[in-house]
Amino acid sequence: MSEARRIDLNADLGEGVTDDPGLLAVVTSANVACGYHAGDVATMTTVCEVAVRHGVVVGAQVSYADRENFGRVALDTAYDELRHHIADQVFTLTRIARRAGLTVAYVKSHGALYNRVVEDETQARAVLDGSGDLPVLG
């Protein structure tokens, strides 16, 4: 007897560059931009409302405060400031998701921060600490 396999089809959403409703009809999880590299409260709200209708799991896609470069430039942000930025992004999406009937399931760094935490222990710790009890996808 073989075990059933489950594939999690994941996408970055809420960035203003994709067809979020179309993708939410086919993905099983979505990394929702939390406003620091892209996205805003209205976009996060819409993504969460559509996600709940499709049974899509949402995660907080956190980043540097760098809308100008779409979070694609590594920044030398101090631990306390970065931890605060991560916590703020997670809090914002958590509040919006709850209103839509969802729970934020995980945190995933975006762009340059995603790459930076592989080698920078201080920034990695800031992301982990700012994420609270949520698992961090890497």
List the secondary-structure elements in sequence, H or E: EHEHEHEHHE
Radius of gyration: 15 Å
- What structural class do you assign from the helix and strand content? alpha/beta
The poorly predicted ranges are none
CA(first)-CA(last) distance: 32 Å
Overall 3D geometry?
A: globular
Fraction in helix = 40-55%
Largest sheet: 5 strands, parallel
Lateral strand order in the biggest sheet: 1-2-3-4-5
| Beta strand % | 15-25%
What is the residue-averaged pLDDT?
97
Beta-strand segment tally? 5
Number of helices: 5
How is this structure best described in words?
With 138 residues, the protein is of the alpha/beta class. The protein has five helices and five strands; from the N terminus they run E-H-E-H-E-H-E-H-H-E. It has helices at residues 20-24, 41-54, 79-100, 111-116, 121-130, and strands spanning 10-13, 29-33, 57-62, 104-109, 136-137. A five-stranded parallel beta sheet has the order 1-2-3-4-5. Helix 2 crosses helix 3 (79-100) and helix 3 runs parallel beside helix 5 (121-130). It is globular, with a radius of gyration of 15 Å. 38% of the residues are buried. The mean pLDDT is 97.
What's the helix and strand layout?
Blueprint: E1 10-13, H1 20-24, E2 29-33, H2 41-54, E3 57-62, H3 79-100, E4 104-109, H4 111-116, H5 121-130, E5 136-137
Parallel strand pairs: 1-2, 2-3, 3-4, 4-5
Helix pairs in contact: 2-3, 3-5
Attribute tags:
138 residues; alpha/beta; 5-stranded parallel β-sheet; 5 helices; 5 strands; 41% helix
Short description:
By secondary structure, the chain is α/β, with parallel strands linked by helices. It has helices at residues 20-24, 41-54, 79-100, 111-116, 121-130; strands at residues 10-13, 29-33, 57-62, 104-109, 136-137. It has five helices and five strands.
